[in-house]
Structures are given as structure tokens and as C-alpha cells.
Amino acid sequence: MTENKDVEVQKTEKKSDSSKVGVAAIKYITYLIIFFGIIWFLINYVFNLF
Description:
This protein is mainly α. It has one helix spanning 18-46. The relative contact order is 0.07.
């Protein structure tokens, strides 16, 4: 006894938004540049006064 059944297969693909990744990368790189700029300023100007 074989039963033939019609089965519909539906494939779904998750689309990743690469622009969100780029925006986040630029934001955190900017934070790092500002942080290291402040550290550089403190080392070169503030700590040399002592």
C-alpha cells in the first residue's frame, strides 16, 4: 500500500543587511579614534607638565 502525497517545499532565506554592519563598524571605529586621541593628548600635553 503506497500512498502518493503532494508535498510543497518552501525555502526561506534570511537576508542580512550589510549596511547595518557597516554603520556599526564606522561608529565603533570613530569611538576608538576619539578614545585614542584623548589618550594621546593626555600623554603628550598633560603628563608632560608634571
